[in-house]
Amino acid sequence: MLRVTKPEGFGNIVLEEVPIPSVGPNEVRVRSKVSLISRGSEILRRYMHEEAIDPRIMGYSLAGVVDAVGSEAAQKFQPGDRVMAVAPHAQYVVQPVDSRIGPRVWPIPDDISFEEATFLPLAKSGVTWAQSPGIRPSHTIVIMGQGLVGNLVLQGVKLHLCEQIIVVDAIAKRCQMGLIFGADHAVDVNEMDPVERVMALTDGRGADIVFECVGGEPGLKSFAQAQEMVCDGGTLHLIGLYHGQPLPLDAGKIQRRRLIGGYYGEDPPEFMLARTVELVREGRIRVEPLVSHRFPYQEAKEAFDLLYGRLAEAMGVLLVWEE
Description:
Radius of gyration: 20 Å
CATH class of the largest domain: Alpha Beta
Number of helices: 10
Strand content: 25-35%
CATH superfamily of the largest domain: Medium-chain alcohol dehydrogenases, catalytic domain
CATH architecture of the largest domain: Alpha-Beta Complex
Structural class: alpha/beta
Number of domains: 2
Order of helices and strands: EEEHEEEEHHEHEHEHEHEHEHEHE
Helix content: 25-40%
């Protein structure tokens, strides 16, 4: 079988041929249909680094069909089942059916496509992050960054009643998409100062909750701006990662405010994933419009290059393993 690997060298994405993995008693093997590339972890933390990357962490979500099951796993899955797997980009993957860190394999109903299923782990996170700070009807919410994570947080926030939602991004197309997905205001940082705009929209009070979803080096400035936007008694929820250096936390500006980091709350991940599946089925979380590009797996290198070099064009980039 073939899998995506990243040997030594910046941007060195290649396909490697390896044996098809066997299954253990508590495992299932999935024949991949499609997988989703994460710009955060796979570009900022894999593609852009010189060192070789363990192939087991080259990818985080795919959908396909169960191909083989272990003796214990057969109580939950059978060959032919349609599933989502938290797994790397490969023609075949093996995952346990039970994990202490949350579901690694999950059944998908017939009315959710394989492409939609690849978004389930990230959508589950967006829904969970959105509910954890405790949104109230009187709240103004700001979401910094409108990539996949920021958009799915926006959709998660829309499940709750609040006064207004403001999205912020440096790419005009993503600002426009934020409005399409229900934001009340979109701030393009190339056209206006986001802190000044948020203050104007809140009569100088600031936002009750700011979700900071900007990863990489741009997140350094965005995090500093987020601290300026949070109102007295408000919450800054830090979600973005891979900044490359320590974030500029200003102790004076964070006083009387709450700072949380990627906080999931207390609901079990199995419960939140099942809820997210239903939200997608009901159309309350929409992921199909987030797909911007599809590449055959043989063009994995080109797919990764697109996400690195032409960010303004890309959102959800999929690798198709089998039609």
